[in-house]
Amino acid sequence: MSDPTEQEPTEISRDNPLLAGQTASLQPQPCSFVIFGGAGDLSRRKLLAGLYNLAVDGVLPANFCVIGFARTTLDDEKYRELARESIETFSRRPIQEPYWTDFVRRLHWVSGPFNEPDAYASLRDRLEELEPNFGIPCNRIFYLSIAPSLIEVSLENLKSAGLISDPADTSRFSRIIVEKPIGQDLESAQSINATLSKVCDESQIYRIDHYLGKETVQNILAMRFANAIFEPLWNQKYIDHVQITVAEEVGVGTRGNYYEEAGALRDMVQNHILQLLCLTAMEPPWSLKDEVVRDHKQEVLNCLRPIQPHEVDDHVVRAQYGPGYVRGADVPGYRREANVAPDSSTETFIALKCYIDNWRWAGVPFYLRTGKCMAKRASEIAVTFKAVPHVLFNVDPAVALEPNVLVLRIQPDEGLSLRIASKLPGSKMQIYPVKMDFSYGSTFGSQSPEAYERLMLDVMAGDATLFMRRDAVETSWSWVMNVLDSWQSSGARWLPEYRAGTWGPVEADRLIEGDGRKWRTL
Ligand code: BG6
Questions:
Q1: Which one in 155, 184, 185, 192 has a CA-CA gap of 20 to 30 Å to 266?
Q2: Cα(342) to centroid of ligand 1, in Å?
Q3: Cβ–ligand 1 contact at 248 (below 6 Å)
Q4: pLDDT at position 445
Q5: Are 424 and 432 in contact (CB under 8 A)?
Q6: pLDDT band at 423 (very low <50, low <70, confident <90, very high)
Q7: In the chain, what are the domains?
Q8: Ligand 1 in contact with 179 (CB < 6 A)?
Q9: How far apart, in whole angstroms, are the C-alpha atoms of residue 186 and residue 389?
Q10: Can you tell me the distance from the alpha carbon of 474 to that of 182, in angstroms, rounded to the nearest whole number?
Q11: Is pLDDT at 472 greater than 60 in this prediction?
């Protein structure tokens, strides 16, 4: 019998025998999808395009409508034009009939300021008018794609307008999607969370971290727990260290105002990178139920060793990009970007070393780095295994063997590779490192859905696995606060600079080289 995995790379059909018997995902339920900030940047770039792609895939519920809601004066027709333009610009697939005709009739607009109770009365009236037409029970999703300062007032107004249903009422649902940043620090995150829990139940809240919706990030769990060969080695006995890199080519662009208040630690580490760390380091969950997976991830955060004030200088490097070139284009340097202070001390790069104090990871350093305007857009998790014993092929310390490295590539060239040692052909016994490589693109052919597509669908299905629970947000903040507080009290004004288009400052190299290791070249 031929092995079905030896077929030519192709799009895998749902009828493929290898998929037989696997659990189907949850079903999206009929609902109204209200986008606060419906004409804003995120809505135009990701949400409208994402919903349209879900429509093309035929996975949206048949009973479904969208309402864009914001102060902007628009009407249904104008909103539909804006949606068409946004989808033409940002969608991974072009506008196609008959999908577009069916999708566009579902789009509607309600104008009103978020702090005005009357606006919510209009929103409620519109929902009550549209829902019977589309056969939607009172199932409502409110996507808060708005500034953090508007979250509280919006939630209170939703509640007063009677738009948040009782979580115990199974005949209807209200679900709230909250975008990052959830707070600026632990205190503000706690305050947003406190408001959320005043207005609704934790089961109604979906805090987005879009990294969790990326296909390859979800594949970390599949790779670890659907294969027998990795898990026995996945611990301090066999692993030397782990590197997590999220490198971006882009600078701050038009987001200077936001970024000045954030910086790389708040913008990327507190959320995306710590989530990658959790998935890499968590214990095997006993089920894929949302609470079980989230409990297991939370344990990793609970075990993250706090970086003490006296350790910050040794364990953490921050820096700012200076003038340089990225992909041949001139970059002015962070302090000369729009809406950035000329003497800004906001970091655009961070590298740090941390430890997870539990049985599995005792003594294994995790090196994390992320930055803007770096040499290349590349995100990966690299697990470096310990050296084989110093006998046979590894006797001479001057020519030590390269260790095994398992790399999970998150983007852009999604896949997985494993470096192993092999004999070089010839009469001598010479060992050479070779790479086994799996690439999503060449194996599965089709384009992966965008993270937001998956996440919006999960909210429609009521599956919170890929969303941040309150405790995860707050524990991550409290870990990050050790570093932020220490920076705050040191008051440093001038950070090390790295040339735009490079891999960061020399101080980051020293951080890891001091431990006898090296950053991977990506
Ligand atoms: C966002 C950050 O959360 O993630 C941005 O605010 C960053 O600064 C972006 O550029 C990176 O996301 P992705 O999906 O492009 O890797």
A1: 155
A2: 24
A3: yes
A4: 74
A5: yes
A6: confident
A7: 4-179 (3.40.50.720), 213-384+462-513 (3.30.360.10)
A8: no
A9: 45
A10: 9
A11: yes
Measured in Å, residue 258 CA sits from the centre of ligand 1 at 13
**Rounded-to-integer distance, Cα 351 and Cα 94, Å:** 39
CA 514 to chain centre: 30
Distance CA 25, CA 301 (A): 27
Residue nearest to atom 8 of ligand 1 (CA): 267
In whole angstroms, what is the distance from residue 344 CA to residue 318 CA? 13
495 by Cβ neighbours in 10 Å (0-12 / 13-18 / 19+) ranks as buried
Nearest CA to ligand 1 atom 4: 268
| Region at 462 (left for phi over 0; alpha for psi -120 to 50; beta for the rest) | left
Reported as a pLDDT band with limits 50, 70 and 90, residue 360 is very high
**Quick one: which atom of ligand 1 is closest to the CA of 262?**
6
**Ligand 1 centre distance from Cα of residue 43 (Å):** 15
What are the Cα distances from residue 357, in Å, to 302, 368, 477, 481, 516? Answer: 9, 16, 18, 18, 21
Kindly give the number of the ligand 1 atom that is closest to the alpha carbon of 246: 16
Please work out whether the CB of residue 474 comes within 6 Å of at least one atom of ligand 1.
no
Count CB atoms within 10 A of the CB of residue 433.
Answer: 13
Distance CA 195, CA 175 (A): 15
pTM above 0.90, yes or no: yes
Nearest CA residue ID for atom 14, ligand 1: 211
In this structure, the number of other CB atoms found within 10 A of the CB of residue 111 comes to 18
> Is 272 designated active site?
yes
